[in-house]
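Model it.
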Amino acid sequence: MQARPRVLSGIQPTADSFHLGNFLGAVQQWVTLQDTHECFYMVVDMHAITVDYAPDVLRQRTRVSAAQLIAAGIDVERSSLFVQSHVYEHAELQWILGSITGFGEASRMTQFKDKSAKQGTSAASVGLFTYPILQAADILLYTPALGSQDFQVPVGEDQRQHLELTRTLAGRFNHRFGDTFVEPNPYILKSVAKITDLQEPEKKMSKSSSSPQGILDLLDEPGPLRKKIMRAVTDAGNEIRFDPATKPGVSNLLTIMSALGGQPIAELEQHFEGAGYGQLKKELAELTLETFGPIRERTQEFLADPAELDRLLARGADRASEVASATMDNVRDRVGYLRRGTS
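Modeled.
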C-alpha cells in the first residue's frame, strides 16, 4: 500500500483562545488533512519565546492550545500532536542549519523586517532573527525517506518565503553533505474568507490589532459571544446584501455566516431579503454558538484533567521523537560529528 504523504504544521500558543480566523484558516483544514495525510501537528512554544512573555502564561497557553486542537477534531490516534520543546532535536537541527545559512539570507526574511521595524532593530532578539531557521528545522526533522513519498507543509501567503528558505537549506545541505532531506512542497491551504473586525470591519480580525469586542474567540462564553455579535458594527440603510465597499459590516457578518454554515452568500442574501440587521445578527449568533459551544466544552474537559492532556502530548512527542531522532542520527553522521562511545 502506498504511504500517505507526510504533512507538518504548527501553531503558536500566544493567546488564551484561538479566534475565528485561526479556526477557519488553519485548524479546520488540519482536521480535514488527517483523512489523506500522515500528520504531525505541534504547538510551537519555542517560537513563542522570541518576543516578551510570562513563563506561567506560556505554560498555560500551551495546554490551552493543545486542548483546543483536540476539541476541534485533531485525532491523537491518527495524528502526532506534540509540544515543540518536548522534541529536543528541533534546537539541535536549527544550529546546524544556521551554520549553512547566510546572514544576508536571514536578514531578508520579511517577518523579521516587519517585526523589527515596529520595535526597533536594537530591541529585536536574535531568536526573532533566526526564527525562520528554527522553522526550517521544524519541517526538515520530519523528512520522509528519500524517494518514498511527498512531503508537504500547509502554507498561506505569509509563510511562503519561509518555506522557500527551507527548500533552499535542504538542497544546500544535500549538495554539501549528501542526500538527506526531501525538499518540502507547499500544501496551499484552500482560500478562506477574509474575516474582519466586528467593530472595525475595514480591518482584519487579529489578536494583535483588534479590540476584544472585535474578535470572536472559540472559548468565549455564550453570553459574551452573543453580545459581541449583536453589537457588531453594521452600515447605513437596512438592506442585507454583500457589498464590502459600501456595506463592510453587513458583508463581514454574511461572510462569517457563510464560512461557518457552508451556505453560499447569494443564498443568504435571498434568505434575509426583507429582514433587518437584527435578524441577521440573531441567526449568526445561534450558528456561532452551535459551532463553538462543543469545542469550548470539550476544551474545558481536557483542561480540567491536565495530567491526561499531558499524557496525550507526551505520547505524541514520543512518536515525533522517533522520526526526529532518526533524522538527527543521519544528520550528525553527514556533518562529521564524532559518535558518542558507549561506556
